[in-house]
Amino acid sequence: MQEKYLASEIERAAQNYWDTARSFYVNENSNKPKYYCLSMLPYPSGKLHMGHVRNYTIGDVISRHYRMRGFNVLQPMGWDAFGLPAENAAMQNNVPPAKWTYDNIAYMKHQLQSLGFALDWKRELATCDPEYYRWNQWFFLRMLEKGIAYKKTQIVNWDPVDQTVLANEQVIEGRGWRTGALVEKRELPGYYLAITKYADELLGALDDLPGWPERVKAMQANWIGRSTGVRFAFPYRIDGLASDKLWVYTTRADTLMGVTFCAVAAEHPLAAHAASHNPTLAEFIAECKRGSVMEADMATMEKKGMPTGLHVLHPITGAQIDVWVGNYVLMSYGDGAVMGVPAHDERDFAFAKKYGLPIKQVVAVENLEFSTDAWQEWYADKAAGRCVDSGKYDGLDSSAAIAAIAEDLRSMQLGEPQVHYRLRDWGVSRQRYWGCPIPLVHCETCGTVPVPDADLPVVLPQDCVPDGSGNPLAKREDFVNCSCPRCGKPARRETDTMDTFVDSSWYYARYCTPGADAMVDARTNYWMPVDQYIGGIEHAILHLLYSRFWTKAMRDLGLVSYDEPFKNLLTQGMVLNHIFSRRNAKGSIEYFAPEEVELKHDDGGRVLSAVAKRDGEPVEYGGVGTMSKSKRNGVDPQSLIEQYGADTARFFMMFAAPPEQTLEWSDTGVEGAFRFLRRVWAMGHQIQSSGIVAQLPATLSADLAATRREVHLLLRQANYDLTRFQFNTVASATMKMLNAIEKAPAGEGRGAVMTECFSILIRVLSPITPHICHALWCDLGYGDDVLAASWPEPVEAALKQDEETLVLQVNGKVRGSITVKVGAAKQTIEQVALDSEVAQKFLVGTSAKKVVVVPGRLVNIVV
RNA sequence: GCCACGGUGGAGAAAUCGGUAAACUCAGCAGACUUAAAAUCUGCCGGCCACCAGGCCUUGCGGGUUCAAGUCCCGCCCGUGGUACCA
Question: What residues contact A28, with CB distance under 8 A and at least 6 apart?
Fold first, then answer.
């Protein structure tokens, strides 16, 4: 073996070995237990960034560890290849998204391979491949048949200059990112998937996912947002309107007697009716329709309203209630109308104060004074209050009042209790080119007709170049023009494509069944569910909820036999980097990569200002944020790999922080990871040249026994840390092992202790830095392939010790230590502590009030 | 705004059950080796007080529970992720 650590040579050799031996190609014919380890598939943005390296190294460490523990491990990889960035790149470089995407895939695949991940590449898939997305189309048609997919209108961000739909990401401060034009809300028809039909199951099944982080389950539960309340109506009679009821939903029916107004969404029929002969109101409604559709914008904007001049009747008292239009009422949520109870709802309170609407208290809490001057938390407290000034409901508590009022509404046929979800159905239509075509045909005679299964896939043309003004598919006559599958007459193809979350909702199942001429086949039931799923915390809600929904829909269509796709979930923390941007003259935003920017710091190291190196003009510092193509703040690991090797990059990534924690990028410390690997190599060389000693002598000197004990203790700790995926401390355990081996004292058996301890070190380190460990394992003659080695376990005999040291505290402060026999009785320990010189010093003129003994840890004397 | 998570030395971090705060590493400082540099090795490295012995303080801020709090409870501040068309 070479004396010097030559990373690139070692890595090439190890990768060649794995390729030749087909080490990571797996199948279902194994007598080992299966283990499906899956990392979220990357978007092929051009180059890997540090977030990818982190994600895939975590997955690889888990995969290799489980493999050495005797599992049949599947670890596949693929490409989330449809999406917006390809269209943006196309506009910038005049390259078709298809070419850009496939070029990126080729480059990034090469990068992944150079990192030495234990991937089964024969299962690779790209979601932009017609052989993949045909099954999106096929399944969409099945959902259409089952009524899970349906059509209704959706509200989108509209750029009036580019005449195009904008993604939320493309709306910055209410303006289109390219044009700077004020964004408008526009209604378009679109297809929805009825995820709300599964809301109860999606919520309930969270309890059956003990391997998911609590925080993710909490977020999903809140997102689904099940509530029980009452849906009821305010009756009205308004000339020119056929309907005679204004429906609302509330969880606080107990405050119904405090209603002083109603508010409807700008798109509500009552608003439209009132506006038809009220230009001021029409103008206000138009104003409500300006701005983006984002929830964060809706929630933070100033709450505004305008009276419609219409009124409805209180369902119980019959009193006239004014109807307002409110910019904060969402048509897409419930019935697009809400009751206003200013006394007991904080938002209604602010609204009433602003417009001088009456505030009527109907819930009181003993000893607390209600005042309309300022909002107080208890006004909305469901638990403490009782009804007042509410007629026959006076004195009832919240739940009794809700029950009584719901019953009265029911008897009047004006409402009933209802379970409500915050979750909305999943709108999947996108007015974009680079996505999976929705397999429908529009015929003047037959209406909307599904493309027959035999004609799937509807293939997306590969050579379009978007220009930012709408979907180029609509201009492609050869795509759009077709004949109706039903009547044969000329017809037009649907040009909307599917949300890319469709692509990623079932790819994990397709990995299991490469080459199947169905969506999936029986092999999926061998591998699924995924035993360990690893991906960014940013997917905690949407991707993970859609995948769970999709799995249940596939199950209900008889395609798979499992209920949940991901048994265990590890949510990786984001890798963050600094963000710099500038708004140009047109009002659009340009981002600068950190290396394109020069920083000025204050004395404390805080960023004061930044200028672009290119032109010396100032750029705005946007703080830190997740590495992304669009913000141009990704760091390419390539130079790291070239300079130090894949093992150093992998080790450093694992060492830097625990997987779930957010990581602010900095490359200081990479050098240290490299130094460590060089020392590991040097130790291997030293052991090899001084001769490998397999047999430990019958007895060891106390010093050597201590070295051996330390390494076995570290092994015990590392094994524990592996079970909880805390790889940073596994990495530091291997560093501590090396420190101990290097300091191994002279004496009989030194070679044997070093040989044994180093074999432990290599195996524990091998999932993190597989190349160097592969080389050392072979070169030192431990075996042919470290992948086939058994995972090390600490040896009890090596851990044994006769005495232990306990911390001695007086009044909770550390004052010294005592040494006792292992397993000594509490009374004995107490006596040793009290007799100690340190304790005696503190006991002069007083006595111990209490002595707390924590076995194996400490003694605390309270005086 | 709302939901979730986080905040520990100059930096990344560790501390498994409420039991020695800062393991391991980076940066820095001092030294050894060297003609020199690189590499390597050794020592120091939270703050204040002290001649030493040692003492006091310190886990974003303010309170609380406890023999004992980074860890548990209450109230704030700041940061990150998500917020349904970024993926």
Answer: A34, A523, A526, A527
Q: Which residue has the tokens 């340190």?
A: A838
Q: How far apart are the first and last CA of chain A?
A: 64
CA distance to A3, A11, A650, A677, A759, per residue, from A680 (Å): 12, 15, 15, 5, 11
What are the tens digits of pLDDT across the range A466-512?
988 888 999 999 999 999 999 999 999 999 999 999 999 999 999 99
Nucleotide B68, nearest residue via CA and C1': A812
A218 strand B contact, CB < 7 Å: yes
Do A470 and A460 form a contact (C-beta atoms < 8 A)?
Answer: no
User: Residues of A from 25 to 64 whose C-beta is within 7 A of strand B: which are they?
Assistant: 43
What's the CA–C1' distance between A556 and B27, in Å? 58
Instruction: Work out the average pLDDT over A438-458.
Output: 97
Token couple for A854: 């924590």
List the A228 CA – B75 C1' distance (angstroms): 31
Give me the pLDDT at residue A604, please.
Answer: 45
A649-708 residue pLDDT tens: 999 999 999 999 999 888 888 999 999 999 999 999 999 988 888 889 988 999 999 999
Mapped to the 3 state alphabet, what secondary structure does A224-251 carry? HCCEEEEEEEEECCCCCCCCCEEEEEEC
pLDDT tens figures, A291-308: 899 999 989 999 999 999
Q: What are φ and ψ of residue A254, in 5° steps? A: -65, -15
Given this model, what pLDDT does residue A779 score? 95
A838 touches strand B (CB under 7 A): no
Give every CB contact of residue A515 below 8 A, 6+ residues apart in sequence.
none
**Strand B proximal residues, A:418-447, Cβ < 7 Å:** 422-424, 426-427, 429-432
- What are the strands, taking DSSP E only, across A455-588? 481-483, 490-493, 497-498, 532-536, 569-572, 575-583
Instruction: Classify A834 as helix, strand or coil.
Output: helix
Task: Give distance CA A139 / C1' B51 (Å).
Answer: 84
Q: Which of residues 139-158 of A touch strand B (CB under 7 A)?
A: 154, 156-157
A109 CA to B16 C1' distance (Å)? 38
Q: Which nucleotides of B are covered by protein (CB under 7 A)?
A: 1-6, 11-16, 19-21, 23-27, 39-42, 55-57, 67-69, 79-87
Please determine, for the modelled complex, whether the ipTM score is greater than 0.90: yes
- A717 strand B contact, CB < 7 Å: yes
**According to the model, what pLDDT value does residue A672 have?**
94
CA nearest to A429, candidates A419, A440, A418: A440
Task: Provide the percentage of residues in chain A whose pLDDT is more than 90.
Answer: 79
Residue A458 CA: distances (Å) to CA of A195, A299, A495: 25, 40, 11
pLDDT band at A601 (very low <50, low <70, confident <90, very high): low
Residue A471: CB less than 7 A from any atom in strand B: no
Strand B proximity: list residues 496-535 of A with CB under 7 Å: 499-501, 504
As a rounded value in angstroms, the CA-to-C1' distance for A578 and B23 is 30
The mean of the pLDDT values for chain A is: 93
Is strand B in 7 Å reach of the CB of A735?
yes
Nearest nucleotide to the CA of A817, by C1', is B20
* A228 contacts: CB under 8 Å, gap ≥ 6: A251, A417, A418, A419, A420
Q: What is the DSSP string of A80-130?
A: ---SHHHHHHHHHH---HHHHHHHHHHHHHHHHHHTT----GGG-EETTSH
Q: What is the 3-state secondary structure (H, E, C) of A377-439?
A: HHHHCCCCCEECCCHHHCCCEHHHHHHHHHHHHHHCCCEEEEEECCCCCEECEECCCCCCECC
> What is the C-alpha to C-alpha distance for residues A322 and A357, in angstroms, rounded to an integer?
10
pLDDT at A120 > cutoff 70 = yes
A563/A525 Cα distance (integer angstroms):
11
